[in-house]
TrEMBL record, chain A:
Role of this protein: F-actin-capping proteins bind in a Ca(2+)-independent manner to the fast growing ends of actin filaments (barbed end) thereby blocking the exchange of subunits at these ends. Unlike other capping proteins (such as gelsolin and severin), these proteins do not sever actin filaments.
Superkingdom, taxonomy of origin: Eukaryota
Gene Ontology biological process: actin cytoskeleton organization; barbed-end actin filament capping; cell morphogenesis
Molecular functions per Gene Ontology: actin filament binding
Name listed for the protein in its UniProt record: F-actin-capping protein subunit beta
InterPro entries: CapZ_alpha/beta, CapZ_alpha/beta_2, CAPZB, CAPZB_N, F-actin_capping_bsu_CS
Family from the record: Belongs to the F-actin-capping protein beta subunit family.
Annotated keywords: Actin capping, Actin-binding, Cytoplasm, Cytoskeleton
Entry's localization field: Cytoplasm, Cytoskeleton, Actin patch
Self-association state and partner proteins as the record states: Component of the F-actin capping complex, composed of a heterodimer of an alpha and a beta subunit. Heterodimer of an alpha and a beta subunit.
Coiled coil: none
TrEMBL record, chain B:
Source organism phylogeny: Eukaryota, Fungi, Dikarya, Ascomycota, Pezizomycotina
Keyword Protein biosynthesis: no
Role of this protein: F-actin-capping proteins bind in a Ca(2+)-independent manner to the fast growing ends of actin filaments (barbed end) thereby blocking the exchange of subunits at these ends. Unlike other capping proteins (such as gelsolin and severin), these proteins do not sever actin filaments.
Quaternary structure (record): Heterodimer of an alpha and a beta subunit.
Superkingdom field: Eukaryota
Matching InterPro entries: CapZ_alpha (IPR002189), CapZ_alpha/beta (IPR037282), CapZ_alpha/beta_2 (IPR042276), CapZ_alpha_1 (IPR042489), F-actin_cap_asu_CS (IPR017865)
Protein name listed in UniProt: F-actin-capping protein subunit alpha
UniProt keyword terms in alphabetical order: Actin capping, Actin-binding, Cytoplasm, Cytoskeleton
Family of the protein in this entry: Belongs to the F-actin-capping protein alpha subunit family.
PROSITE patterns tied to this protein: F_ACTIN_CAPPING_A_1 (PS00748), F_ACTIN_CAPPING_A_2 (PS00749)
Recorded GO CC terms: actin cortical patch; F-actin capping protein complex
Cellular location(s): Cytoplasm, Cytoskeleton
Length: 266, 274
């Protein structure tokens, strides 16, 4: 029953307005409290920003840097509010995490020209795993706004001189526009994609480059996909609902065309 | 804390176009109550049907008629002016029954009939699949003009709905049409993307004739669709581009060997003059 309920919860969240995912998630877990933990770790929500008290730098909150009610800053490796025995990565994986944060900070600046990013790594029995988070918001006046959240979760499993990477990426994109001529327009949603790859590993530094390229390629693909769905597909469906041109003319033209084709076939 | 019924009711009312049955199935599974929960959700189904302009087939007919607050007779009985029929609806299953002949009784009956005729021509020209209705409202002092167009393509993971709701006070001379157009599109292949729009409409009408009212409405709908199409381009070129570049300004992908490892590539960020 619990599995069926979990599937129903995911199906429901895939159908209800993606702008309201946070409230809907809360409502579902009020109805079925037992699903709370599983849903929180598998449903992506817009990321929250917090300032690291040690370094005064912003970082992003997610389930992977949370321990109880505290969140670990990637810049200081400290929990806020402070925790005596909060879960932190091993020394080797923390070193990788620091390097990945530096690398993705450059990436963020090059592609997002602003925004906030955070990378969190954790140890696995046969490798390590991590999440790369990127967030940016824009407002152009009061009438137009946009928000982008990238959540890339990966696992790197050790093989001989290779590593097997499995990456699951979600982008949450919210766009809104309001003018007198347009009224209110809200275009919101999320899309998820997965990729797996075996890549050579010479040293720990190779991991950063491998994960970096996987995420960079994935974001390029997803950006193109979002562009297609948000501004192509959605617009096409509006055109399916309502035809700007006259349908009788369209049908007449089509009939004439058919006649011509028939005529040529004689 | 909100009760299960309140929460489940909000899910029902939030169901996207063409997916009410899926949402109901999810709610039944989540609450573990199956069909037992349905009677307590009846008010939510009614609100959904009336606000979404749900269409139902009249018994023994292929014609789809609208359910709304404007053509409600009493209880679960609604009225269709074109076929001059009233019918009962089961809000939960969205099926009509007990149809009865019900002549249109209104001092504006002639206007309503001409409006239906003009609206029918307009609807046929621009909506491949739609239902519409014109009803007397507000103690017969005004008319409501409704149009709903649905396209469902669940095999391709998209559904859409266009709703237009107008009210026209009937007076001897000039009048004004007020109303709203809503467009809702849901795309859910490997994700969940929704377009929701609301466009308030206010148009003054020089003479209270069906031709001028429907003519102005048709023009407003065309203008709106054109504006919406422009808004897609504006969002794509504006906010979307401003969030994330397709490629860095250098047109080069990141050189991960330089920025990765244990040294930060100061030369790369420094090279951009930042």
């Amino acid at each position: 029953m619990a599995d069926a309920q979990f599937d129903s919860a995911l199906d429901l969240l895939r159908r209800l307005n993606p702008r309201d995912t946070k409230a809907n998630l809360q409502a579902i877990t009020t109805i079925v409290p037992d699903l709370t933990e599983d849903l929180l770790s598998s449903v992506d929500q817009p990321l929250e920003i917090r300032r690291c008290p040690q370094t005064s730098r912003d970082y992003l909150l997610c389930d992977y840097n949370r321990d109880g009610d505290s969140y670990r800053s990637p810049w200081s490796n400290e929990f806020d509010p402070p925790l005596e025995d909060g879960t932190v990565p091993s020394e080797r994986v923390r070193k990788l995490e620091v390097a990945a944060n530096e690398a993705f900070d450059v990436y963020r600046e090059l592609y997002y020209e602003g925004g906030v990013g955070s990378v969190y790594f954790w140890d696995l029995d046969d490798g390590f795993a991590g999440v790369i988070l990127l967030k940016k918001g824009v407002t152009a006046g009061s009438q137009s706004s946009g928000e982008w959240d990238s959540i890339h979760v990966f696992e790197a499993t050790d093989r001989a001189r290779m590593s097997h990477y499995k990456l699951t990426s979600t982008v949450i994109l919210h766009l809104a526009n309001e003018t007198d001529a347009l009224g209110e327009m809200d275009l919101s949603g999320n899309m998820t994609r997965q990729v797996e790859a075996d890549l050579p590993v010479e040293s720990d530094a190779s991991h950063i480059a491998n994960v970096g390229r996987l995420v960079e390629d994935m974001e390029l693909k997803m950006r193109n996909l979002l562009q297609e769905v948000y501004f192509g597909k959605a617009k096409d469906v509006v055109g399916e609902l309502r035809s700007l041109g006259s349908l009788s003319e369209t049908n007449r033209d089509r009939a004439t065309q058919l006649e011509m084709i028939k005529g040529m076939q004689k | 804390m909100a009760s299960t019924i309140e929460l489940a009711s909000a899910f029902i009312e939030g169901a996207p176009p063409g997916e009410l049955a899926d949402v109901v199935a999810d709610v039944q599974a989540l609450t573990s109550e199956g069909d037992d929960i349905l009677p307590s959700l009846a008010p939510a189904f009614e609100r959904y049907n009336e606000s979404q302009l749900t269409t139902v087939k009249l018994p023994g007919s292929s014609q789809e008629v609208i359910v709304s607050e404007f053509n409600k007779v009493e209880g679960n009985r609604y009225f269709d002016s074109e076929s001059q029929t009233s019918f009962e609806i089961d809000h939960t299953t969205q099926t009509a029954s007990n149809a009865q002949s019900s002549p249109l009784e209104s001092q504006n009956a002639d206007l309503i009939k001409s409006l239906l005729k003009s609206l029918g021509v307009h609807a046929k020209e621009h909506y491949p699949n739609c239902s519409y209705g014109v009803y007397p409202i507000e103690n017969d002092s005004a008319v409501a003009i409704l149009l709903v167009a649905n396209r469902y393509s669940p095999n391709n993971f998209w559904n859409g709905r266009f709703r237009a709701i107008y009210q026209v006070p009937v007076s001897s001379s000039s009048t004004a049409v007020t109303g709203k157009i809503h467009v809702d599109v849901h795309y859910y292949e490997d994700g969940n993307v929704a377009l929701n729009t609301t466009k308030p409409v206010k148009i003054s009408i020089p003479s209270v004739t069906a031709e001028s009212i429907i003519g102005r409405i048709a023009a407003a709908e065309r203008d709106y669709q054109e504006e919406l199409n422009r808004a897609f381009v504006r969002m794509s070129e504006g906010a979307f581009k401003g969030l994330r570049r397709q490629l860095p300004i250098t047109r080069q992908k990141v050189e991960w060997e330089k920025v990765g490892g244990y040294r930060l590539g100061q030369d790369i960020s420094g090279g951009k003059g930042r």
